[in-house]
Amino acid sequence: MPELPEVETVMRGLAPVMTDQVIAKADVRRDGLRWPFPSDMAARLTGQRVLGLRRRSKYILADLSSGETLLLHLGMSGRMLVSGAPLGVFHHSHPAPAKHDHVVLDMANGARITFNDARRFGAMDLMQTAGADAHALLAALGPEPLGNAFDEDYLVARLAGRGTPIKTALLDQHVVAGLGNIYVCEVLFRARIAPARRAGDLPQPAVRSLVPVIRAVLAEAIAAGGSSLRDYRQADGELGYFQHSFHVYDRAGQACVTPGCTGVIERLVQAGRSSFHCPQCQQ
DNA sequence: ATGGGGGCCTGCCGGC
DNA sequence: TGCCGGCAGGCCCCCA
Fold first, then answer.
1. Which residues lie near nucleic chain B, judged by CB under 7 A?
2. Does pTM surpass 0.85?
3. A30-A35-A40 Cα angle (round to 5)
4. Is the pLDDT assigned to residue A67 strictly greater than 50?
5. Residues of A belonging to the active site
6. Which domains occur in chain A, in start order?
């Protein structure tokens, strides 16, 4: 799935067609995805004005005029497709729902937003906007990596004494929210830290160095419009528009890109996930 | 508390 | 337009 930069990109793509617009019709085409949808979801969405979109970790939150907030997670394969340019009262030709189109929102401006998710690991829920942070899926999340609460002192304290590999620790959404497998691999490569190192054993300068690296990697990916993998699309439905090049992710067997390094990228499995790294530059 | 593994689903790719 | 096994960006839950 979309990790933080991709979710941010999707949210930015949805904002112009959804913000301040009324959901004229909600077509909920199955009972749920990873979990059952909230009761009467279609009715609770229909007629509501979208006051604004926010992102928390890999969740998109849409605040509605009803006082409820729609929570949306793309899981591994979720996509938000936008069709029907919001150009006015003419022009209302939408394609028929395709395979894995689970929820279709028709906005009053003529735009159609389709939540398509082949693997159905995605999620949608509704909650009161007031106190939305207390939602079960949000309450325990760690700080936003691009926010002020995430800093060097925090990370040092959070990783102290932890025996888990640094790779696994950074993937833990309670430590820092929004990193996924790809960006953790890239972050550790850029920080030159081996993924198998125990988090609590890392020298403090190494832990501190992770903070600006995490920020930079995410910011660059957002600036590039999110990374692009085979089945990732931007909100506007364009496939593979941004080709973000990774240094280590999915590059097993290829030469390390660090100038002067003769290492070859290796893949190892940690906590059931692939970790790509250069055994030569990452210590 | 912490850490590891299983499971949820479908699709794709490589090897045979 | 072959079949099968392995693998995939996430994350909750259960177990030791």
1. A 34, 77, 99-100, 118-121, 161-165, 168-169, 199-200, 230-231, 271-272
2. yes
3. 55
4. yes
5. 2-3, 58, 273
6. 4-134 (3.20.190.10), 152-277 (1.10.8.50)
